[in-house]
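Suppose a colleague, Dr. K., hands you the sequence of a protein chain of 87 amino acids and asks what its three-dimensional shape might be. Before reaching for any lab equipment, you can write down a predicted structure in token form. Begin with the sequence itself:
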Amino acid sequence: MANTAQARKRARQSDKQRERNTSQRSEFRTAVKKVIKAVEAGDKEAAKAVYLESVSVIDSIADKKIVHKNKASRHKSRLNSAVKAMA
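The predicted structure, expressed as tokens, is then:
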């Protein structure tokens, strides 16, 4: 356990930040899953709408460096391809 006051504070801050990051990473995954579910359902208009909402979430999480910008870009690209490929 931390011995100094500053080490105890850093430990508290780390715990808060870890919880925040975990929550936002979960939000990222949920956004991706929503698009996949909409694509599987087969409604192209709904899938486009969900995709646009998800892009906002994905970008904000990448801006905060919770996930790497290239990972966010890769997910957006694959989701967009899936939406466009719908008949």
